């Protein structure tokens, strides 16, 4: 199986052949993968080097000319470092782009905290008008990317080495209902699905799968809650900062009695490199820890 990042490179390279409006802007990351595309389309594959503010500025400028920029680097360098440029060059100028990250929250722990971005979705969520996709499989990443490049809006596609074994049919609109239960609603985001599914295997819960987290699918959540009884318990498991979507869930259920638990990456910095699986366990995002936390929350009412 290829990775999401590899699928992004191959898919976007083919899209460059088919769509003369498309342009790719890089900051060294994945430049080797795009070398054949750059040779074929030297005017539409641009590598600005390790200059992330310029990366966003060039993307904004290309958008002003009518092109559809696909802007790519690690999440920490794509969202956190040039955040002011994202806010102004896309938001304030009201231009569109597709930002595609790599690295997830801690895909490469040996890179240290400079290469980790657990707060990227929460940070983008402070801005208006962004669609945020968090695929859980390369097939899903390709489907969401192909949808994103056809528009003129602002889209963030968050890629990770962490991925589910089996893809699901995603459209970029709303959550998928995988099963229904009576004891609560659990929302698994992107690559968290397999661990969450294992964790709730013996629990009588509704399981929703989210690969598009903004706009937040309030309608599906409300329908799911409506089938669980008078009082609703909701757990959201996200592969980035814990609690990122709890406010959205609370807003969706504001007129209903409910409790919401947000599970995800903790705020405490883990200063030992380790491996990705060790970081997942440390943040209690492995199946055993999720079973304990979800079961404890649902059983506490």
TrEMBL record:
This is Putative transketolase. Residues 2-167 form the Transketolase-like pyrimidine-binding domain. It comes from the Bacteria. Keywords: Plasmid. It comes from Streptomyces clavuligerus. The keyword Acetylation does not apply. SUPFAM superfamilies: Thiamin diphosphate-binding fold (THDP-binding), TK C-terminal domain-like. One of its GO terms (molecular function) is magnesium ion binding. Coiled coil: none annotated.
């Amino acid at each position: 199986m290829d990775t999401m990042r590899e699928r992004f490179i191959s898919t976007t390279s083919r899209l460059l052949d088919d769509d003369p409006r498309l342009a790719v802007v890089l900051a060294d990351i994945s430049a080797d993968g795009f070398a054949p595309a750059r040779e074929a389309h030297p005017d539409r594959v641009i590598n600005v080097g390790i200059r992330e503010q310029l990366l966003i500025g060039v993307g904004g400028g290309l958008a002003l000319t009518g092109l559809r920029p696909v802007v790519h680097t690690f999440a920490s360098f794509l969202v956190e470092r040039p955040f002011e440029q994202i806010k102004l060059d896309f938001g304030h100028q009201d231009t569109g782009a597709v930002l595609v990250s790599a690295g997830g929250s801690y895909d490469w722990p040996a890179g240290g905290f400079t290469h980790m971005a657990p707060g990227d979705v929460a940070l983008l969520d402070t801005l208006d008008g962004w669609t945020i996709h968090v695929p859980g499989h390369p097939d899903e990443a390709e489907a969401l990317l192909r949808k994103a490049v056809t528009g003129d809006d602002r889209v963030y596609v968050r890629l990770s080495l962490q991925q589910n074994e089996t893809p699901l049919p995603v459209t970029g609109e709303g959550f998928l209902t995988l099963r229904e239960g009576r004891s609560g609603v659990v929302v698994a985001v992107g690559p968290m699905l397999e661990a969450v599914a294992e964790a709730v295997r013996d629990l009588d819960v509704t399981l929703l799968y989210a690969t598009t987290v903004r706009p937040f699918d309030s309608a599906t959540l409300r329908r799911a809650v409506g089938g669980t009884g008078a009082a609703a318990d909701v757990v959201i498991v996200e592969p980035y900062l814990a609690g990122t979507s709890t406010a959205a869930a609370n807003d969706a259920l504001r007129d209903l009695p409910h409790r919401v638990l947000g599970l995800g990456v903790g705020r405490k910095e883990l200063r030992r490199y380790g491996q990705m699986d060790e970081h997942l366990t440390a943040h209690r995002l492995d199946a055993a820890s999720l079973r304990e936390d979800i079961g404890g929350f649902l059983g506490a009412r």
